[in-house]
Fold each of these.
Amino acid sequence: MQIVTICQVKQQLSLLCLFALWLISCAGYHSGRTGVPVPDSSGIASHSDPAVKRYGMVTGLRTDKVAYYEQLHANVWPGVLKTIKSCNIRNYSIYLNKIGNDYFLFSYFEYTGNDFDADMKKMAQDSLTQQWWKETAPAQRPLPEAAAHNQVWTPMEEVFHQN
């Protein structure tokens, strides 16, 4: 049986504290930020960028248009991608899932601009994007909440996020 003295415990705790501080500083270094993460109101430290707003949306997809929609998105038009980027959208993904007999699309993107409404108006005014939407619209089946407002995608509430 090994007997551990109080001095040995203090020394091990000091080393653990130094290691923890080193890990925190490395996380700041590798994320491109400096300093120690600051806890938010929940007490959890984060390097989350307050200038980035995450969006999740959902819409339906017509069963007979699944293959066409996948084919379109396998080769998104370069001009559409350029417009998305110029409107401060990054990390944009669309996921497909079948629930029962119905197909649904989930989209996720991050907005980094200062005026979301102005950027979305800019996107809607782009002629190539308008043509793209004419291609995708017949495949989509808006949920009732979106259809009631002449929208295709229904915004979702973020209930959890971890960087």
Amino acid sequence: MQETRTIVYIGRRVHHKDVTYGTGEWVQGQHKLVDVAVAFKMLRHPDVYEAGVVEAVSTVVVPEFKNRVPEHELEETVAALDAINTMDPDALCDFVSKNFNQKLDRRKSVANLRRDASLLVHQFGVMDDTR
């Protein structure tokens, strides 16, 4: 078993991704157990890292999702994708031109037309009828 040491991130940024030593993402004040050799190198930067006390602290960072998709938009997207999977080529071209003001190449296969329409729905969302 490797010997480890607790390191605390005290840098000026709230979030920090350590690519130099490969210890992953850090949040200000977070404690992590790091290999002793890596910890020795990290402690050369006293403005960013400091030695910590071994505590029962979670090292898992739970990301906070700020831009969650509202439930009604998710339902509209799923309904549009279901409808796309049942459309014929003419209906797919009409759907894309009506909702996204783009033309599809009618020479493509139905599977490719469905894929293109689905990508547009995922990229731009479902347009409402109030335009």
